[in-house]
Amino acid sequence: MNTKTSFLTNSIMVAFATNNATHIDAHFGSAKEFHIYEITRNSYNFYGVVPIMVKDTDSTVKLLNGVDIVYFVNIGPAAAAKIINNGIFPIKYKESVSIDEELSKLMNMLGTNPPPFIKKICEQRAS
Questions:
Q1: d(Cα 121, Cα 103) in Å, to the nearest integer?
Q2: Any residues with CB less than 8 A from the CB of 77 and at least 6 apart, and which?
Q3: C-alpha distances out from residue 52 to 62, 63, 83, 88, 119, Å
Q4: Residue 89 has pLDDT above 50, yes or no
């Protein structure tokens, strides 16, 4: 999924580790699937589902190629290092969170004053 150059400036690609398709409720290493969205300041679009058939960190990281941020409820240190080394920013929640709520937050952040890590992602996408 190498699509970094095909999106608008000020957009980000985000993956949510999920077991129920509506919440960020999965450990990175045991997620059944990742739901991928493209988010801009005005909208978000569902990009697709990445099903995880084999529980292998390297395979999962490859499947997430092109994603800027990945959300989950937990991750092991080796897996965290691998996603960071592949240019994906990890975000961990302590408990289940609604994907829709997080999409709204991200849209709002892009439309107002994004935190430095999101500004950096947008700058990298623009170059």
A1: 16
A2: none
A3: 11, 9, 16, 18, 30
A4: yes
3-class secondary-structure state, position 81? helix
* Nearest alpha carbon to residue 102 among 63, 60, 73, 66: 73
- The candidate with the shortest Cα–Cα distance to 47, out of 10, 89, 90, 14, is 14
Quote the pTM value. Answer: 0.89
CA distance 56 to 93: 22
Separation of alpha carbons 107 and 44, rounded Å: 7
Compute the radius of gyration of the chain from its Cα atoms.
Answer: 13
Q: What is the pLDDT of residues 42-88, one digit of tens each?
A: 999 999 999 999 989 999 999 999 999 999 999 999 999 999 999 99
Domains within the chain, CATH numbers bracketed: 9-126 (3.30.420.130)
